[in-house]
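does this look right to u?? tryptophan version
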Amino acid sequence: MSKDNFTVTPWDVSGDVNYNKLIKNFGLSKIDDKLLEKIKKQTGELHLFLKRGLFIAHRDLDVVLNSYAKGDSFFLYTGRGPSGNTHIGHLIPWILAKWLQDKYDLELYFQMTDDEKFLFKENLTLEEATGFAYENALDVIALGFDPKKTHIFTNTQYAKTLYPQALRVAKKLTFSTTKAVFGFTNETNTGQIFYTSMQTVPAFLPSVKAGRNIYCLIPHGIDQDPHFRVARDILPKLGYYKPASIQNIFFPGLAKGGKMSASDVNSAIFTTDSKKEVEKKINSAFTGGRETIEKQQKEGGNPDICNIYKYNHFLFEEDDERIEEMRHLCKKGQIRCKDCKKQLVQKINNFLQEHQKKRQLAKAKLSEFILTD
Ligand code: TRP
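got this back:
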């Protein structure tokens, strides 16, 4: 992808991502109005993330929904690489998964890849990764998933179940394919080369358990697609359906351009941040404002490049009229960045206060969700 000014792999996202190009490079389908209509017909309403274009691409979502319409249900699969605390960007596919679970009455398999993070992060021990998995699981549970239908597991502690299935995948996956898809070299450690087989397992494990094929839908960040491209290639060879996916773009960070990234603490709002930390971070965030108040009043601001506006648009302002008004006032220069920031700090802190409460309560519920063997 050297002719593009950006890179997107499961491990490295950099540059100014052109999503149209990325969709083409990856061979994804866009989520179009027709598909949105289909979802709306089945669910009665569209989730904000679908309406506002946070989820933009998919593979075979139409296939899964058509089969659902004929009475054949599906299950959800998503996951998290536990290398640190959870930030707001991580929550995006999980929030959509919760909505889909409610609307379609679905089981969810949630994979915590402590193995992956140990293998890929230079300075992370396996114990630390497993520890973060349990911390992150609290954030998952806090979103309100149904304990009867939601199964969270770490790869190392559910290994007895996962490993035999991963072997079946690995036997069909050559080094040459992993090199082509992920850019691996002779210096890559062999755990990394094996890892995609582990991430493939939950896409067909429920079918193994049920002894019949069940469709799988994976809500995930677009950077994870290469793993599932491999999964889609291999699973039919083992007699299973290709997993379908619904993919979100990166949640904006606090600086100009770029995504919210856990490795850059100042780019991200963590679910454990205090009110003061949120205020400090939002106050120093990049906006679409002008250099001076006078200039802003005369020329107006630019909501399209403004992180504060984007946070409202994608997550914190559900009211369509209100978001239009914010956009209008900004462009007319009738609202100052300072005031937008103040409102957003309030909204984020309200959200986090609730989330942190539920996160605390989740500690007592962990055992209802966790699968081990
Ligand atoms: N590899 C993912 C990460 O680093 C974690 C993951 C495992 C995942 N299975 C998944 C993410 C399924 C989305 C969907 O974050």
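The chain has two domains: 6-249, 272-361. idk if thats expected tbh
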